[in-house]
Design brief:
The structure holds 2 protein chains of 2 kinds. By secondary structure, chain A is mainly α. Chain A has 12 helices and no strands. Chain A has 2 domains: about 70 residues, no CATH class; about 210 residues, Orthogonal Bundle (MetI-like fold). Helices cover about 75% and strands about 0% of the residues of chain A. Chain A is flat and about 85 Å long. The relative contact order of chain A is 0.15. In chain B, strand 8 and strand 9 form a beta hairpin. The longest helix of chain B is centred in the C-terminal third of the chain and has 18 residues. Chain B is globular. Classes of the chains: A mainly alpha, B alpha+beta. At the A-B interface, helix 2, helix 4, helix 6 and helix 11 of A face helix 1, helix 7 and helix 13 of B.
Chain lengths: ~300, ~525
Amino acid sequence: MRKYIVKKVLLFIPAIFTIITITFFFIRLAPGGPFDKDKNVPPEVLQNLERYYHLDEPLWKQYIRYITNVLKLDLGPSFRKPSYSVREWIVLRLPVSIELGIYALTFALSIGILCGFVSALKQNTWVSSLIISLGIIGICIPNFVSGPLLALFFGIKLDLLPIAGWDLPQQKILPSLALGFIYSAYILRIFHSSLTEVLNKEYIRTAKAKGLSQSRILIVHASKGALQPVVSFLGPAGANLLTGSFVIETIFHIPGLGREFVEATFNRDYTMIMGIVIVYAVLILIFNLTVDIIQGWLDPRISYD
Amino acid sequence: MIRNRILYLLFYFSPLSLFIISCSENSFSPYNNLRIGNGAEVQDLDPSIVSGVTEHRVLSALFEGLVSLDPKTLNPIPGVAESWEISNNNLLYTFKIRKNAFWSNGEPLTANDFVSSWKRILTPSLSAEYAYLLFCLKNAKAFYEKKIQNFDEVGVKAIDDYTLQVELEYPTLYFLTMQSHNIWFPVHLPTLEKFGDPYTRSNKWTRSGNHVSNGAYRLVKWIPNKIVLLEKNPYYWNKESVRIHLLSFYPIDNQLTEERLFRTSYLDLTSTVPLKKIDFYKNNRPGNLLLFPYVGVYYYRINVTKPPLNNPYIRKALSLSIDRKKITEFILRGGEQPAYHYVPPGLGDYKPPQILEYNPILAKQLLSQAGIPDGKSLPPIEILFNTSEAHKTIAEAVQRMWKENLGIDVRLLNQDWKVYLVSMNQLDYQVARSAWIADFLDPINFLECFLSYSGNNRTGWNNPEFDKKIELAYREANSQERLKLLEEAEKILLEELPIIPIYFYTQKMLISERVVNFQPNVLGYIRWQDLGLR
C-alpha cells in the first residue's frame, strides 16, 4: 500500500509538468493578450508594460523563466491585479471555494445516499418512483436555473435567507444547496441502482438466512459494496466541487476561485490561468489517489501490488 | 466492527461538523453607511496605475486632485489647490496649495507630492497605462521615452511647499477639468517606499492598513471580491462638509444579483440596471430609477480599406437606412438618445453638426448613384460584435433595417472580447460594434481617436484635412476658435462616415430614498462628500 502511494505521488511530477507545458503554450494561441483593451494603450506605454512582465522575450525564454519560478513556488505577478501575486490571490480565494464545495458535497452525499436507501428499500412502490423522478428532474435542471430560482423563492419571496455574500452562516445555505443539488441527484441515481443490484446478490441472501437484522444487512453488508460506484463518481465530482463553480459563485456573489478562473481566461491573465490550472491539477490528482485508496478499503478484491 | 462503524459515521457525517463558522459582523449594515454596488472588482487602489470606471468611483472618494469638479456644472472648483492663475497664452498654470491639506496619516501635503507623483507616472518602469494623459506637460513625452534624463526639464515644479507651477507643451484648454481623472491624483511617496519599490507595479501600499490618501475618505479595508470599505478621513481639510461616515463598495459584476440586492435593501446605489428590469422600475418604483445622459457614444465602425465599404456612398446609404429612434425606443428603452452626430451632447459650448438622419429613400438613391441599383447584388455584409445579448439585439435590428431598406444581406458574427479586439486592431472585419466613453470632458477626446495615426482609429480611414484640424485645435489657445475647428473636423468625419453613430448612452442606476443630495451629471462623476443619508 505504502509503495503504491509513493509510486503514485512520484507520477504526479511528470503529470503536472506536462499540464503546465500544454497550458503555457495553449493559452498563448488564443487571440489577444492581457493588454489588449477597448481604448488602445499607446505603443510606447505598451512596450514598457510588456517589458515589465517579460512578454517581449522569446517564448522559450518565458517558458524557462516560468518553470524555474514554479519550482521556487513563485507563480508570478497577476497581469490584472498589479499589486497582487498569483499565489496570494489563490490563497485568498481557494479556501472560499473549498468551503462551499464541502458544504455542497455534504448536502449532495447526505440527500443522495438517504434517498438512494429509501428508494432501493421501497422498490416498485410509489415512493421509489417519486424519488427517482425527482432525481431525474434534479439532473435536468442546470444550476444557472436552480440558483436564481432558489434566490428568488427563499430570498425575495419568503425573505428568509440572504441572496448574496459569504460572511454569515445563513448566506452560505442557498449557494450550497444550489451547487449540491445536481450532484445529489447523480449520487441518488448511482447509489440507487448499485444498491438494488447488491441487494439481489447471494451474500445478502446468506446474511438474511443467518438471521441478521435488516438494518445491519443494509448498513454493514450491502452499502459497503454499493458505495463503490459512488466513490468512483466522487473522485472527479469532488475535485470539481471543491475547485469552485463559476455559475454559483457569480449568482450568489461569492469570492471563490471558480469565478476567478473564468475571468482570468477572458482577460488573458496568463499567470493567473497557469496558477489556477496547477492548483486544479494537484487537487484532482490528490482526489483520484484518495478514491483509489478508499476503493481498496471498500472492496477487498482490489490489490495494489 | 465498532471501528468500522465509526469509520462509516465519519465518512457520512464528518463534513457536517465543518458548518461551525465564526460569525463576522454583517457587512451590509446600513447605519451611516452608504452601500454601493460597484460592478467589477477594482484592479488596484493606486490612482497612478489603474484606468477603469469602477476604480475611478472608489478613487475619487479616496483622493483629491488639484481641482475638483462641481457635480452640477462640471466646472472646476478648488480642490487641494485653493486658487490658481493661468498665463495669457494658456501654457503656464500656478496653483496655490492650501496649507491645511493633509494626508490621511496626518502628514502635510505639499507641492512636492504632486511633482513626485507625476514623476512616478512618467517613469517607464511603472508602466502606467494612462501615462500618455500626462504628455500634455512640457517635455513629459520626451522624459517618458528617455530622450531626456533630467526630470527638472519636465513642466512641473514646486516653487515652494505651497506653490506648484505647471508648464504645458501646448495650450490644453481642458487641463483643469482633466484633473478629475485619477491619473492626476497625488500619492504619498514615503508610504510607497515603505512597502517596496515605488517605481514598479508590485508595490503593496494599496493593501488594507497600508493605504494613505488625501481625499474626503480613507481606506479601512479592502477584501478583494468582497468589499472596499472607506471611512471619513479625519485629516481632510474640508471634513466638516463630509456627511456620510462610511462608504462600502461591493464588487458585484452580475447585474441581476446587484438588482436583487437592491430590491432586498442591501444596497443603496447600484452601478447599473439590467435591461429587463427598467420597465418594472419605471412602472412600480420610479423614484428609485435614475436615467441620465452620459458622455458616451455607441457606434458601428466600418473597415474602409475593403470593398464594398470603401465606397463612401455605400457607407452613407447604410447610415441613412438605420432608424435610430426605433432602436432607442423599442430596444434600449433606458432614455438613450438616437445619435445623429458623433460627439455626445453636454460637452460645454461644443455644437456638434447634426447631419445624420433616417431617410431610406435617399439611401436607395445613393446606392444607385454608387452604381448599385439593388442591394441584392452586393455581397453580404458582416457585423461583428463582442458577445452580449444587448449588442446582438441591436445588430439584429440593424440587420433587418439594411435588408428592408436596401435589400443588403447582413450576417452577424460574435466573438469573445479579446478576439474581437484583435479582429478590430487587424482590420479583420467589415462592420464592428464599438463605443467610446469620455476620459475627460472635452470633444477632442472623442475626435482624436480618428486621427490617421491614432491607435484607436481601427477603421483604416485617414483624412489629412481632419488630421490638420485636430492638430490645429491642439495648439489653439482661443477656446471659441478651437471649438470651431473641432466642429469642422467632426463634419468631415460625418461626411465620410468611417463610423456610423447609433445612440448616446445613459447612465442607469438604482438609488434608494435614503440617499440625499445626489447630483447626476453627464460624466457620471459622483462627489461622495456631498451626499447625505436620511
